[in-house]
Amino acid sequence: MNNKEISYINENCLERFGEYCRKYYTARLSADNRISTSKKFIKFINKKEKKIGDVKHNTIEEFFDEELEKGTSPVTINNYYSYLKGFFIFLKKNGDNTVMEYDKVRIERIRNINYEVFTHKEIKELFKIINEDKNEQIKLSNRILFSIMFYTGCTLKEIDSIRIYQKESDMALDDDNYIILDKKEIYFREPNVRKFYLYDEIIEDIMNYHEIVSEKIDKEKIPNGANLFLTTYGKTKALKKLHYSSLQGRISSIKKKSSFSHKKLSLKNIRHTVIKKMIKSGKSLEFISESIGIDMSTLKYYRPNNSGIETEVINYFYYKHPYKNIII
After folding, report:
1. Cα angle: 210, vertex 212, 214; to 5 degrees
2. Considering the entire predicted model, what is its pTM?
3. Which domains does the chain have, with CATH numbers?
4. pLDDT in tens, 111-125
């Protein structure tokens, strides 16, 4: 069975599930959430050329892992878990998938994520590995990638979509994420508007990197609004955005060269390193939420001794609630 046939079968299941949700879920938002989550999952398995009828619990876990890598919050993934469970109940009833054992999906490891972080020594080692690369273009792009992620706590997904402008008046598009070189500022607009001043060294690296790329395409400079990370292809040397998977590959290759490559330490945890450092320095959750662009409900996963907070909540509502004597 070829990829086109697999995609047709998968999309057909999704379409029927969509009709079912719209018919039986009176709350439109509830139906839309279930459909959009299932659509995201179908896109994931289409990419892997996997038929919906062959999907088992391990594929669900792979989907969650990829979403975590993109920066999706554990809270959202918990919702995905519930929505996909309903999707596979529907598929089983209709005979589209009879092999799924959904109870085997290991959601506990997501609910109780213990984020590992980089030490100062490990961060220095990463930049040492980057700076030893003899290819100037790759060295600069990797240094920019890691510098921005460690500086802002942004996700790889956010950095992948950054566009570069010389000055603010050059902007022709309403971009979500962008850098204005002459102001030395980086902007993120989702999930909330954030702005940071960038160090001179980062701006200089970006300009030097784009200068190398422009020389390869025989241009004086990179056009305004170009993506931060670029590659060239074909005889025409046309500019193309460096693919998201290529950035992931860069990160993996650098990690493999490190002394801590054996650890369960994914480079997506750069963000967690920044957040934990901010928490330890005494910054409020509100401050972190606004500056990193992360939902407040997700930040509870970063706090130590959550069990103590849980006990306090239980004791308050059961023993000390201000309306206890009225409603009981």
Report:
1. 65
2. 0.70
3. 3-111 (1.10.150), 120-266 (1.10.443), 272-319 (no CATH)
4. 555 667 888 999 999
